[in-house]
Amino acid sequence: MKKSMTMLVSAILLTTVFLSGCENDSGKGSSSASPLASDSGSKAATDAKELKLKVVIPHFGGDPTGTLVQQEFEKEIEKYLGAKVTIEWTRIPWGEYKEKTQVMLTSGDIPDIMLVRSQDNIIKYGEQGLFLDLSKYMDIMPNYKQFITATDNNEQYLMNKNKQLFAFYDGFSNPSDIEPSQYAAAYRLDIFEKNNIKVPTTLDEMYDAAKKLKALYPDSYPVAQSEQYLGYDGILNANHTNGEIYWNGKQYVYGPTEEAYKESLVFLNKLYTEKLLDPAYWSDEMDQAKPKASTGKSFMYPLIWSGYVADFNANKEAGVKWALSMLADNPKYGKSWKYGSDTKGKGLNNGYGLVISAKAKNPEQLVKLVDYQYNDKMIDLLMWGIEGKSYEMKDGKKQYLPALKSSADFVGELAKMGVSASMRTRPGIVFTPQERIAVYTSVPDVLFYNNGKAQMENYYMASDKYGGKESIAPMDRAPKIMLTKDDNDRIANTMTPIKTYVKESSVKFIKGEMSFADWDKFQATIKKMGDYESILKLQNDKVKK
C-alpha cells in the first residue's frame, strides 16, 4: 500500500512539473513563451489573428530561444499561417523525456503539440482518442504528404489497421546520391607508421597487426571497444551477419543461428586467448575507452563513431594520431558492411513523432504549422541557418561559410545561431526533418586511411566514396513494416530470454568458457528456449509482397 501511494504521489508531482515548466536552471527541463506566455491551459486559444499553443519537446543541451534561426522560424510560421503565433515551450532533456512524458500520456492531460517517443504509444493513445487523426487532414498537409509518399510500405509502416495516422513522424531528406555511414574502423596511425605495420584491410591483417603490437607493447590490448551498443558489429559486419534478427536482403533471419556468427566468435576467441582483445571489451564505454586511446593501451577499434577520432587527435597533450578506415573485410564474404548507412531521397522513420491533441482548438492551423516544417524552405532554414550568416551558395550548392568552418569551434558557432545540424541546439518543434548534406558537412574533417595513404577528409563522404554500394548492409534497407503492441509483446516474450542466453553464451565462447565443440548444443538450447522461428515468420509475413 505504501509503495502504491508513493508511486501515485510521484506521478502527481511529475505531472505538476510538466504543467508548470519550472525546472529551467536544474537541467531537468525548461519552459519559455515566445513571444508571450500562454494562458490557454492545454488547449490552443485563437481568433482570426492570433494562435496560442503549448508545446512539449526534448532538448539536447542548447536552448534555441532567441537564436537567429529560431527567430526566423517564428517569423516564417506567422507569415505562413497569417496569424500571430504565441508558443509556450517546455523542453525536457532527451535522456529523461520518455519517462517523464509517459506520465502526461497516462493522465491524458497533454499540451497542444508534443513529441511521443514510441510508436506503440502513438498508436495506443491515438486509438484512445488522445491525438488528432491526421489522415483526415491530408488535403492541408502537402509537405508531409510528400514524405509519406516517399516512404516504402507507408500505410502499414505509419498507420494503424484502420489507416489512421496519428503523428508527424521523424523525417529525413538526402538530396544526393551518397549513402554514407558515420561509423568506421580506427587505427593509431602514428604507432602503425613508426613500427612499419600495415593498416589492416582484412580480419587476418587485423590479427597479424595485433600480434605485432602486443609484442612491441606488452602492457597493451591492441583491439578495443568504444561503446557497448556497437557490440561485436565490427566483426559481425565483416562476416555479413548480425547479433539480432535482421533482414539479409531476402528475408528476416536470426544472426546467432548462422555459421557466420560462429566464425565471428571464433575470431574474437583467438584475439582474447592471445591477450590481443581488451578484457574490458564487454564493459567499456567512451569514458573508459578515451584514456586508453591516448596512452598507448589501445591501438585498434573494429568499429567506432567517427567523430571520436577527431576528439582523440584534438588531445594535444597526448600527441596521438588516429585515422579512420573502412571496416576490415573477410574476403570469404566480400566487402564488409557499413554500420547504419543513410538512404537517398526523402522518407520517414516511425520510432517517434509529433502529435496534436485531439482537444486542441483550431486543429487545422496546428496541422498546417507542423506540416510547414516539412517544406524544403523550412528544412533549409532549420538545418542550414540563414544565407550569408551561416552558409553561402557556391556552384549552385549550399556550403557553410569558410570563416565558420575554420573557427576554433565550428559546431559551437552553428549552435549559437540555432542551426539544427549542430545537433546541440534544435530549433522549431523537434523533431524536424534532417537534411543530410547539412549534417554531413557540419563535421570536422579527419584523417581517413585508404589504399596505403591517409588524408584529411569528411568522414561521411569518405565512407561513401571508399565503401561503394556493395558496403551497404541489407538490414539498413530492410522493408518498412509496423509491429503492433501485441506483436512487440510477443517478440519480447519470446526473444528476451533467448537474447539473454545468447549474450551470456557468446561471451563464454569468446573467453573459452564454452567450447565450440558444443555449438550444436548451443543451437538446440536456443530452440528450446523459445520459438524464434515463429517470430521470423511474423516479420516476414508483414513484408509487402
Describe the overall structure.
The protein has helices spanning 2-20, 68-81, 94-107, 119-127, 142-150, 154-158, 189-194, 203-216, 233-236, 259-273, 286-294, 307-314, 363-372, 376-384, 402-405, 410-417, 436-440, 459-467, 485-511, 519-529, 532-542, and strands spanning 30-34, 45-47, 50-59, 84-93, 113-116, 168-174, 183-188, 245-247, 252-254, 300-305, 322-325, 345-356, 391-394, 397-400, 434-435, 446-450, 453-457. With 545 residues, the protein is an alpha+beta fold. Strands 1, 2, 3, 4, 5, 6, 12 and 15 form an 8-stranded mixed sheet that branches. A hairpin with a 2-residue loop joins strand 16 and strand 17 (453-457). It is globular.
Short description:
With 545 residues, this protein is an alpha+beta fold.
